[in-house]
Structure formats: C-alpha cells, structure tokens
Amino acid sequence: MHTADAIVIGAGHNGLVAANLLADEGWDVVVLEEQPDPGGALRTEEITAPGFRSDLCAAFFPLGAASPVLRGLDLTEHGLRWLHAPDALAHVFPDDRCAVLSRDLDRTAESVAQFAPEDAHSWRELFSQWQGFRDEFLDALFTPFPPLRAGARFVRRTGTAELLRLARMLTLPARRFARERFEGEGTRLLLSGNAAHSDLSVDNAGSAVFGWLLGMLAQDIGFPVPEGGAGELAAALARRLRSKGGSVHCGTPVTEVLVARGKAVGVRCADGEPIRARKAVLADVTAETLYGNLVAPEWLPSRLLADLRVFEWDSATVKLDWALSEPIPWTARDARGAGTVHLGCDEDGLSAFGAELARDRVPEQPFLLLGQMTTADSTRSPAGTESGWAYTHVPRGSDRDTVRRQAERIEATVERNAPGFRELILARRVQGPAELAGHDANLVGGAVNGGTTAIHQQLFFRPVPGLGRADTPVDRLYLAGAAAHPGGAVHGGPGANAARAALAREHLLGPGYAAVIRAANRAVYG
C-alpha cells in the first residue's frame, strides 16, 4: 500500500491549490485525477482546426488574477503570464448600440456617458468606493464564512454606514441595483450582464453583488487570460507543486474514500489499489460526488443526505467554439477590441431570459457570453484570424435536438450584429451539457458555475459543519471544490480553505479538533 501525508482527489485548480499549500508546509502530497491531464475546467485544445487553440470551459479570469490565494502562489515564477484584450468587456445591444468597460477609467466613463452624461460621474464614484476597500473585501471573500478577522478589518476600513449600504446590496436584484445607481441603459447593462455570469437571473435577490464585483474587477484589473490558454494556469500550478515535491497522477480515478472509526484514512482507486493518507484526504469534487459516491452513507448524518437531495443545480450550457478566418466584423466597432462580449439582450431581454430558464423553457432569444480569444492573446490562432466562442444556457435535461437548435440561435444572434460572420467560419465545435461534463465531472449536467442558482445556496448550503469551513462529518476529510465556500469560478478559494482546515486540524488544534467537528455536526444535523 502506498502512503502520503495528504491525498487530493481531483487535479482541478482547487485541488492543485490545496496541494501546493500543503506542500509548502512540508507535507508529502499526492494528487489523483481521473482525466488524462490535470486542470479540470482549465483545459485548452485544438478542437476546431489546426493552429486554433480553444479553452474547453473557463476562459477569462478576473477573479483568478485578483485572488489573494493565487497571487500568493507567485505563479509567474512557474510560467504563468496574464494577457489582456484592449478592452475588458463590451455589451452589444440588439439595436447595435454598444457600452464598453475598459481598464482605462476615462474610456469607460466616456462610453457610459453616451447613454446618460451623469453616469460618467456615477461610475467613477462607484469605482472610487471599490478602491477604498478592495483588498479588505477580497481578503474577506476568500476566507472561511463568516470571515471574522478579515471581516473586522473590512468594517474598520469602510465604517458602519458604508457597510450597511453594502449589506443592502447583497439582498438586491442586479436590475434594481443598476437602476438605483445609473440613469443610462448602457451602464445598467454592463452591471446586469456581469451579474448573469453567475447564472442568477438579474431579477433574483442577491444577483447585484455578482454584477458589481465583476464590473469593479473589470475596471480594476480587466478580464485577463493566461498566455497560451486556460490550461497554462493549471500547468503552472502543477509545475509549482512538483517543484515542492508533490506529485500528480492522471488517469487514476478514485472510487472510494476509506474511513475507519469516523476518520478518513485513505482512498481506493478504480484499479482496486488503496492509498493510505497519514494526515488528510481533500476532495476537489462536487458535494454530490463526495457524499453520494465516495463516502459510505453510514459515516454521514441522514440530514446531510436529505439536504443534498434538494440542492439546486444551475441551468445547462450550450457552447460553440469557432475557427474564424478573420476577426468578427461587428458593426458596433467598439466591440472589436473587447475580449468578452455580451449580446442578444437589452434590459427587458435579460429579465425574459432568466424567467424562461426558471420555468424550464428554452429561451428563444438567448443571452450570449462571447469570447474573442485571439484579440486577447495572439498565440491562440494564426495571424489575421480569430479563435472565438460563445455560450448560453438551456434548461437542465435538454436533449441534443435542443442543443442543436440553440447552437443555431447563437450563430444567428452573432450574425445580426456582425453581418458576414457565418462566412468567416472555417470550423466549429458544438458542446452541450454532456460534452462539458465530460471535460470535468464537476460540471454536472453542464452547470458551469457548480450550483450557485440560489443565493442561500452560495452562502449557506455548504453541506459541511463549522460555519462554512471545508470540514466534513468525517474527521480528516475536507471538501475542496466549488461546493465549499466561497463557491464557483477560478480563484482557488475552496482549495485554500480546505488546506488551511487540514493544517489547523493537524498542527493547531490537535485531537480536540475532531470533537469540535462532531459538536458542529450535532448542532447542524441533529
């Protein structure tokens, strides 16, 4: 039987972050990944035409570049280089108007002023507020919930009145928040379109904070991409881990977490081989996979399993990747320099899009998130061409015929705002829910954000005890994936929190930590 101090299940970015932090403390760490390569949703391949590199899932990384977790790993020393398109984001209206969000504050202000002159000042004011507490807010976001120490620093920096205003924003729908702060539809759609990245409807309570956060990050650091593709972020994490003595074993599915007397003692692989963990097992998988497949039910509270059955996953995703002979010929010229483009909907259209998905109906007019990857990174395709993609959402359980029809609507929507687009397509690849889940099993049913549909799930439904920590009902087993706080997106927060919990268990609190977790279990699950 092989042994290690820690076994990490899954080589997605959260698993690799957790492994790196443990290796930094001198732990012997083994990462086991079922796919042939590390990365999870961070994968880049030539899936359309030779020389055109497509990110299979995640593509732009504002939270990744801003994350104190990833910044603390100094991945530039291991080959990671962030690149930017001239503009972070453009929202193209159905009538061809266009609002631009740029890292250049003057350019953003000039763009939103075309819709309402007073919005230039309002946008500057909102961004100035963000700059005043940026670091404290991000520190609070990426520490276990509730963020007591980081939260205290945040309160001292902002003051009580400002904190209460931010607390109110946490409850607001994005559309309401945007209308309260801005007069013009351009600025409002920049925020609401960003809120839609979370897969919350712009009319859902709690969606405002996502639109605000992504909008402020776009203004602050842009929507950067790793040079060479999203896979380069995973590759840098893997290189760093190996330099610290850790190892990554791909093509090695884990079928069981081994538990003895309520304590995780190792894992069993698909080939039947057990591997012993001296100190911890960390799982970069969904809560459904960990508690429904990997841990035997006798080790889990019945209330936890009941809660898990009502967890609501996000809508499914349809994604097209294109190899284009030229850049997209937007008639709204301001969209040509944006790495990310939103299109297909105005304010009412965004509301209708979310309402149709909530009723399990296929939206006839989809809201699109589109990436112009060569615009951001010239290595993605031959000179003069464009490697592009777009995705939208459909109800969960949509069949292949629905995927095909929605793919046709995606291309028709782009063609309306960029006549001649279809003639530039050299090759295409359609990915539906099954294909996306095939790249990364954590994208259950094509849910690209991992189950953040309802805000109470994002903050409170983490089926783990300990006030939002990564701890589980099994001692020395930690949930390190997007089902743990602070949730989905590429930022490393869940992996870092799992590693910190494992280190605390081993070094700070000792054997008494297990008693704390058992008490928390009794309080939460009875």
TrEMBL record:
Region (Disordered): 375-402
Domain spans labelled Amine oxidase: 15-283
Chain intervals with Polar residues compositional bias: 375-384
Pfam families recorded: Amino_oxidase
Any GO MF annotation of the entry: oxidoreductase activity
InterPro entries for this protein: Amino_oxidase, FAD/NAD-bd_sf
PANTHER family associated with the record: DEHYDROGENASE-RELATED, PHYTOENE DEHYDROGENASE
Purpose of the protein: Probable oxidoreductase that may play a role as regulator of mitochondrial function.
Subunit structure: Interacts with COX5B; this interaction may contribute to localize PYROXD2 to the inner face of the inner mitochondrial membrane.
Name of protein: Pyridine nucleotide-disulfide oxidoreductase domain-containing protein 2
Organism (species): Amycolatopsis dendrobii
